[in-house]
Structures are given as structure tokens and as C-alpha cells.
Amino acid sequence: MKQASLQNNTDTIVAIATAPGRGGVGVVRISGGDLSSFVKHMLSVGDNLQPRVATFCRIVDSQQETIDEAVVLLFPSPKSFTGETVLEIQGHGGPIILDRLVQRCVELGARLARPGEFSERAFLNDKMDLAQAEAIADLIDASSIEAARSAVRSMQGEFSGLVNALVEEMIELRIYVEAAIDFPEEEIDFLADKTLRDNLHGLAENLATILQRAQQGSLLREGLTLVLAGKPNAGKSSLLNALSGNDTAIVTAIPGTTRDVLREKIIIDGMPLNIVDTAGLRDSDDEVEKEGVRRAWAEIEKADLILFVVDITEDADPHLEDIWPEYFLRYPHSRQPITLILNKIDCCNQLAGPLIDREATFALSAKNHLGFDALIAHLHLVAGYQKQQEGLFSARRRHLDALTKAQDLISTGIQQLELAGAGELLAEDLRQAQNQLSEITGQFSSDDLLGRIFSSFCIGK
Ligand SMILES: Nc1nc2c(ncn2[C@@H]2O[C@H](COP(=O)(O)OP(=O)(O)O)[C@@H](O)[C@H]2O)c(=O)[nH]1
Ligand SMILES: [Mg+2]
User: Fold this and answer.
1) Boundary-marking domain end, from 107, 129, 151
2) 367 CA distance to ligand 1 middle (Å)
3) Strand 305-311, strand 338-343: pairing
4) Which residue, of 338, 355, 383, is where some domain finishes?
5) Does the beta carbon of 346 sit less than 6 angstroms from any atom of ligand 1?
6) Is 100 inside any structural domain?
7) Is residue 447, in this structure, part of any structural domain at all?
8) Mean of the pLDDT values across residues 219-231?
9) b or e along 139-168 (b: 16 or more beta carbons within 10 Å of the residue's beta carbon)?
10) Are 240 and 162 found together in one domain?
11) Residue 94: which CATH number?
């Protein structure tokens, strides 16, 4: 499948590799095909450019007018980021200069690169696998030191290495099982085969460990989406402001103040949180407020965790099912975690912190910042986030999906074996599980998936 995309990928592409705007240096990257005419016609040093030697020269247009002075680097194929011959021009970082450099390249036959096309070529030329290419994008987008560290590990192949090791384990098991099916005269009794069972359970355990680490990595990248819901005036917006330390939301004593959905991304002890503040849930004749409530429900549906905020001066001892029946009517089978927040304890003599004998119920004061440590510890617990974990690697949701599917297939396979002694069914489950894992590294990926992944990268990457 990888080869199918390789066909028309030998043309020359060009893009500005540095971020838009003004800066000391701006980099234009050219890749693919024979770049000798670019070297000859654009650079004042012409043919004398040595590979991999930083060379200061003038960049000239077709009239030999100087566009810029720059440091240029030539990386002949295959020792380059893309595996193709690459020319990098490090000019001055102004948009006009960089555009002129790109235009000059287009005049000489290059075409503008699509988003992620450099990375795509690197992948197609076996410079890196898919998980590594994604890790580069994640490193660039990292919003915390922890996220950046874990992205570096994935970029260096740590995650892929673990996945490949699992694939190897699976291949060995498949060879064993399939051989046994193909040579029934040897009469291997699958049910009685202890080694096979031990190996299968070992595989399942290894997979579970990797999945757990990947979940942490994915959390570092994507963060936990926390939706604040509740009746008007419960103190949702005050809680958003208190958690984020910003005055993002308007807080007033007038019920129905918040009508839009507000979002804040914050990082607490290294864990990213996407906090979403919503309109108070109530029936209203006001068209704007109605729309706000509709949007609130749409956000609630997407939450990783819902904080349902209650004003304790209105409800002294609320229980979730009684106070929010609408949720349970709408989503009778929901498995979303919901935490009940009893707010405004500064107005009564309730102690701050978790309520003993009550699940996921916290008393606090958004206004006076009471009870926040306990809430934050709870958020970490719900997310499964552990501070300062060693050896995390970045992972994406699609990786988690693939690992989870592989896990399900293996546990079905184990059941087929242990309950029915069905070697053929186990073999098929293992084959499918292997395909799932190979999707992570891109060994077995459709062009469609590759297209989707690379097009989400930025231009010049
Ligand atoms: N005493 C007290 N008042 C609060 C607290 N949190 C919010 N309020 C007040 O309750 C009112 C509604 O707050 P707001 O955050 O706008 O509630 P929302 O409608 O749920 O977003 C405002 O007058 C806030 O000052 C709190 O912890 N203690
Ligand atoms: Mg509000």
C-alpha cells in the first residue's frame, strides 16, 4: 500500500518551512528531483556548492538581481529529511523575501508543496514510520514540557519500537498456530498447549502495558475535556475563572449571564485541561438563551468529564440523579464520568473537599478558592494522569483505537482457544490484531488514512 502512493512523487516541491511573519531567519525548503538547475541558476556560488556545507551566497532572480543573501545547504539524496535531494535556503525572515524565493523556485520548475508533503515523502522513503511522522507534528504543537518530551521519545522511535516488538510476538504466534492447522497429522492439541497459552497471555499483558502508556501520552497531547454544567447562577463561570486564573467569563448575579460556550485551555501540574463553560440549563423563552442551552447539551455530550455545579445555599444535600434527571433521561446508558460540585461553601458551614461516603462529590468555593487542591487531585485521578511519569511517549487517539481493537481481538482469540480449542479462529484474530498494530506505524495503512494524517500537518513540514 505504501508503494502505491510513491508514483508521482518525484517532482520538485517548495515551501517556506518557518512560521509566517517576520523573524531573523526564514527557511525555504526544496525537495525532490534533480536540483542542479536550481543550484546553478539561483545561487551566486553556482555549481561550486558542496553537499552538507553551510555556504553563504547571494540568491538571484532571472535578471541576476539579488533577492537576498543567505546560507544555503544541499543534502543530496538519500541523506536528507525526505530521502530526496533537498536544498535549504536560510534567508532573512520577511514575508516578501521568502515569497520571492519561493516564486523563483516555481519559475525554475518547482511546485508549491501540499501541507505535510515533506513528512509524507520522508515516510514513503522509509526515513521514518507513521507514528514518528506524527510525533514531529506533535512536538511542534506541544503545549507543555511533558508533552514535548514524550513527543521526542515517539519521534525517536520508542513507541514504534514497542509496537514493532508486539507485531513480532504476534507473527511468531501466528506461525506456530498456522503451522499446527496446516499439519493436523502432528495432532497439536491447542487446548492442552501450555506454551501457546502462556505466550498469548504474555502478549495480552504487553499490549495492556503499552496501551496504558499510550493513554497517558495521548492525554498529554489532547488534554481532558472538562465541561461545566448546571443551573444558572450555580457558579460555573466563577469556577472557570478560578481554575484558569483568568477573567475569561462574565460573572454576575443575574441568572442566564453565560449564553455562549467559552473555552479555556490550561495546564495544571503538567496535565492539559480543556475547560468548557456553558449556559445554565433551564427552560427559557429567550431565543439566544435557548440556543445557548442547546449548545451546552452538545458540549456535555462530548465531555471526557462533566462537572455539575450546584449552589449549596439552594440545595443543601443534592444527589445527582435527583438534581439532574434530564441528563439521565437523555443518556440512560451513558458512561461519562460526572462529578458533583457543591459551590459557595463560604456561605454556609460545609467543609471544603470531598464528601465522605459520597462518590465524586466535592465541596468548594469558587469565589474564595477553597477546596481546589482536592478537586485537582480528583481530576488527575479521573484522567489517570500521573505526575512526572518516566518514559512516556506521545500517542494519538487513532493509536489508542488501534491498540484497543488489537486488545479486543486477542482476548477473543484467547477465548476461542480456551473455550473451544478453535485454532483457526485464533489464527484469524491474531492476523487482524497484527493489521491493527501495523496501522500505527503505517506498514499497513490505506492511502486514505495517510492522506488524512499528512494533510493535517502544516505547509513546509
Ligand atoms: N458566595 C459565593 N458566591 C459565588 C461563588 N461562586 C459564584 N458566586 C456568585 O454567584 C453568582 C453567579 O455566578 P456565575 O459564576 O456567573 O454562575 P453561572 O451562572 O453558573 O456561570 C455571581 O454573583 C457570583 O459572584 C462562591 O463560591 N461563593
Ligand atoms: Mg455563567
Assistant:
1) 129
2) 7
3) parallel
4) 383
5) yes
6) yes
7) no
8) 91
9) beebebebbbbbbbbbbebbbbebbbebbe
10) no
11) 3.30.1360.120
pLDDT tens digits along 18-70: 999 999 999 999 999 999 999 999 999 988 899 999 999 999 999 999 999 99
pLDDT band for 147, please (50, 70, 90 cuts).
confident
DSSP letters of 22-48?
-EEEEEEEEESS--HHHHHHHBTTGGG
Predicted local distance difference test score (pLDDT) of residue 389: 65
**Looking at the domain assignment, is residue 228 inside a domain?**
yes
Q: Which of 112-116, 179-183, 244-248 has the lowest mean pLDDT?
A: 179-183
413 Cβ inside 6 Å of ligand 1: no
Instruction: Judge if the beta carbon of residue 259 lies within 6 A of ligand 1.
Output: no
Same domain, 316 and 434: no
Rounded distance from Cα 220 to ligand 2 centre (Å): 28
Is the minimum distance from the CB of 83 to ligand 1 under 6 angstroms?
A: no
452, part of any domain: no
DSSP state of 365: B
Q: Looking at the structure, do residues 227 and 374 belong to the same domain, yes or no?
A: yes
What is the C-alpha to C-alpha distance for residues 88 and 43, in angstroms, rounded to an integer? 12
What's the domain count of the chain? Answer: 3
Domain that holds residue 152: 141-219+396-441
What per-residue confidence (pLDDT) applies to 6?
A: 36
* Same domain, yes or no: 367 and 250: yes
* pLDDT higher than 50, residue 3: no
Contact yes or no for 13/118 (Cβ under 8 A) = yes
Determine the Cα–Cα distance for residues 366 and 251; give it in Å rounded to an integer: 11
Give the predicted TM-score (pTM) of the model: 0.76
Residues 255 and 215 in one domain: no
* 8 A C-beta contact, residue 204 and residue 407: yes
CATH at 412 = 1.20.120.430
For residues 161 and 211, state if they share a domain: yes
Let me know whether 232 and 319 are in one domain.
Answer: yes
Closest Cα partner for 217 from 136, 157, 162, 135?
135
Work out the percent of the chain whose per-residue pLDDT is above 70.
Answer: 95
**Is the shortest distance between the CB of 347 and ligand 1 below 6 Å?**
yes
pLDDT digits (tens, 9 = 90+) for 362-415: 999 999 999 999 999 999 888 877 766 667 888 998 999 999 999 999 999 999
Confidence of residue 145 (pLDDT cuts 50, 70, 90): confident
Site of grid cell 543534502: 75
